[in-house]
Amino acid sequence: MMNLFMPDYMLDSVFDITPDFLKCLDIRAVIFDIDNTLVPHNHPDPDVKIVDYLEKLKNNGIKIGIVSNNSQKRVSLFTKNLGVSYSYKSGKPKKGSLDAVSGSFMLEPSHIALVGDQIFTDILAAKREGIISILVSPIDISKENLFIRLKRFFERPLISACRKKMSLKSKI
Question: Which DSSP string corresponds to the chain?
Fold first, then answer.
């Protein structure tokens, strides 16, 4: 059961996920969450740094998708100029919540990664779909609503346990 909440990788930022890192893992497509993964919560547009980062991944042959539990308006405005597959009101972490985007890649799950900032939505969704899960530190939690803050409270012990387990793995 704990494995459902254990990310495969934990990194500080999406910028730590380089094309070389992905190629070493034979990951050919990445699904990103938006809020607090790519931009601060409810930031309306991707900034230049994110646009350049996503272009760099695409230029290295990595397919990109966006899956969010947010509204159609929020997600379609955010992705408007990115040229990526996306899904809104996805229902993460329920099984099938990533299908609309992951299916567009036409790849086996072992070649797809999901990157997000929350264990109970992003990581659990990836685990349920059998894809690689990458947890990044949230960008800015100060503007999050009460529900997300409550989830983060319950995530803390899991994140601590994950860090300890990953630290032990790296020593072996």
Answer: -GGGG--SEEES-GGG--HHHHHHTT--EEEE--BTTTBSTT--S--HHHHHHHHHHHHTT-EEEEE-SS-HHHHHHHHTTT--EEESS--TTSTTTTHHHHHHHT--GGGEEEEES-IIIIIHHHHHHT-EEEEE--S-GGG--HHHHHHHHHHHHHHHHHHHHHHHHHH-
